[in-house]
From TrEMBL:
It is found in: Membrane. Its main location: membrane. The chain crosses the membrane at residues 20-41, 82-99, 104-122, 128-149, 156-174, 180-199. Keywords: Hydrolase, Membrane, Protease, Transmembrane, Transmembrane helix. Residues 69-201 form the Peptidase S54 rhomboid domain. InterPro entries: Peptidase_S54_rhomboid_dom (IPR022764), Rhomboid-like_sf (IPR035952). It comes from Micromonospora solifontis. One of its GO terms (molecular function) is peptidase activity. The keyword Signal does not apply. It comes from the Bacteria. Pfam families: Rhomboid. This is Rhomboid family intramembrane serine protease. It is a multi-pass membrane protein. Belongs to the peptidase S54 family.
């Protein structure tokens, strides 16, 4: 006897399955572990007067500020800045991570590079840019785009929820406040769109298993298998 497909609850990518909720729970715990690391970095920066924002932030169009492309998402301009980023980072990061660790890591790297380089090329050379908001907008872009390219309605539902909770922050992609790097938000969103397309699930992966709960019975042929 051979089985074709698998149990309907075994696909962690399929909304409503037991595996999906288990994956979501693990992703939430992981993101809740990431954010305290950002608080530790901010505490060290403040406590040691290390001035990490300037030392490792993005300084647009200056070579000495290019390394900030990698380091700036881990730095924040004070506690209020970090607090405002923490909850949306956990919320959006959870749903992005739940779709797979490898996709999450590669997608995050693409977002960091696109957002950071976008800021470096287009930002004001008299500014220093830090913060995880570019990554947050990148995760938003991933969920929006996955909803289209993977036909995932629950991704749209997450984006709608975030829009209701943090809709005012979405205006951050527009040049409205000189203290806010709208370039980081805009290029982060674009980076998320690119990552969602690059690391999308293929069509074969999106198709439901054929009769997942029905076994395919192989019968012996008389005179051959018997």
């Amino acid at each position: 006897m051979t089985w074709r497909g698998g149990p309907s609850g075994s696909d962690p990518q399929r909304f409503g399955t037991e595996a999906f909720y288990a994956s979501l729970g693990r992703a939430f715990v992981a993101m809740c572990a990431v954010v305290p690391v950002l608080f530790v970095i901010e505490a060290l920066d403040v406590g040691l007067h290390a001035n990490l924002d300037v030392a490792a932030g993005i300084i647009p169009r200056r070579i000495q500020g290019l390394d900030g492309v990698i380091f700036s998402p881990f730095l924040h301009a004070g506690w209020n800045h970090l607090y405002s980023n923490s909850i949306p980072l956990i919320l959006l990061g959870t749903f992005v991570l739940a779709a797979g660790t490898r996709r999450f890591l590669w997608s995050t790297l693409v977002i960091i590079l696109v957002s950071g380089l976008g800021v470096w090329f287009t930002g004001s050379p008299n500014s220093v840019v830090v913060g995880a908001s570019g990554v947050i907008f990148g995760y938003l872009g991933i969920l929006l785009t996955r909803g289209v390219v993977e036909r995932s309605w629950w991704n749209f539902a997450v984006v709608l929820l975030v829009g209701l909770l943090y809709g005012w922050q979405l205006l951050g992609i527009l040049p409205t406040d000189e203290r806010i790097s709208w370039q980081g938000h805009l290029f982060g969103l674009l980076g998320g769109i690119v990552a969602a397309i690059l690391f999308r699930r293929r069509r074969a992966e999106l198709l439901p298993p054929e009769h997942p709960e029905s076994p395919t019975v192989t019968m012996p042929r008389p005179g051959v298998d018997a």
